[in-house]
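Thread title: Can someone regenerate the structure for this chain?

I was given the following input by a collaborator and told the matching structure tokens would be attached. They weren't. Posting the sequence so someone can regenerate them.
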Amino acid sequence: MTAIRPALLILVIASTGTLAGCATIRNQPTEGIYKHLSYGSHMSDGSSEVARHFTASGRSSFWFFRLVPANTVNIVSLAEKQIGPNEGVVNLRAKTEFDLIDFLISLVTFNIYSTWHIEVSGDVVKLNSS
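Best answer:
Regenerated them for you:
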């Protein structure tokens, strides 16, 4: 019984440290890209139509309380992979969240290794032929 109390105390302290980081962040990437990406509902010249909607996701991972990146997911490259032969993406949205799986990974590793889930969505567009 005496060994259980210290183990529970360590578990509570570790889970409190990981729960303090629970969050959802919605962001818009601002990095340079090769094809057209837009946060609005159409391309700047208005001559495009939506080919399809997409949702892509990945996980970034970190060491030592998220201080050292192990693997980072680039939001723009996730979107660019969806464009293919089309001209671009409109309505681009990115959501970064610390979900249940991320919490469990952090809890089991005592925050030595942790992850973030990243989800990117938008509409792939193609130019209308004139």
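DSSP finds three helices and six strands in the chain.
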